[in-house]
User: What shape does this take?
Amino acid sequence: MTTETIQGRKDTTLRNQGAKAFRPTTKSGNGTGVSDARTDHEGSSKAANQAEVASNARTPTHTPKQGKKRVWLIPREHGAYAQLLLPLIAAFAVGGATLSGVTFAGAFLAAFAGTEALRTLLGHRGRRKQQQLRGLARRWLTATVLLALSFALLGAALAPTGALVALLLPAGLGSLVVLLVLLRREKTVPGEMLAASALSACAVPVALTGGVAWLDAGLMLVAFVLVFAFATVAVHLVVRHKKRPVAWPARLAVGAAAITSLVAGFTLGALAQYPFAAAASLAALPVLGTVTVLATRPPHPRMLRQIGWTLAAMTTLMTLLLIAGYHYVA
Assistant: This one.
């Protein structure tokens, strides 16, 4: 092999080694090639994405629809509205509207409006709502309690002495209802009867502020408490009859008790020459008649909505008859 050939091969080997020394490496590491820059850029992007995911996990997402949704902590027990409003309407209709009576009614309405917030704070509407609505429920409960106390104090300053004494009746019954709520026993039959009695009792001081006699105001209270108690029993009987059929003697006893109370009230009113008692007994006939039908022939529980509206309509009719009877015999 000639010297020129050997020298040429050496030159070619040196050029190849030089090209390798300056060729961009394809491995990621400490090199200074294009791949290193690409690797650094990909690592930075990956770290940014991970930080964004972590930030999103810490921050709750809200859709526009959820952000615009407004929550109202109003009582969900629809029957309770009738148990409070219908006796108050009757009290204003027979006694007239006075400033003290209106303020008392405002106090009762404000106290009633705060019951849903109390149930939410106690977890009766579920743990999720308790956590999500805790702040709103606290503010709403505080506002309704302060409003109720303000109206009650204003009414007490203007009301006669008899109305102040009668104010102890709804206050005492309402305290017992709150105790049952704390014990989670307000959904039982006795609990619902007590709640209906407390709501109906709010009409007594309102009626007394309008000059209604104690006996007449008490009789209206007894009439409302009686029909609400029988209606509560009838609704529970309908629900229980589907799960476990109630024996016909028990169902017949409920209907017989409703009719007996009606006849007894009318008879006592006639014997005592107290015509308003007889008128109140006749006014209760639509509700007690409906209760008798529900107890003796319970419909399917899927008709509870229709049953509720029927009982509300019959109670409204009773209220109108009670008002008419009072003014007729007065």
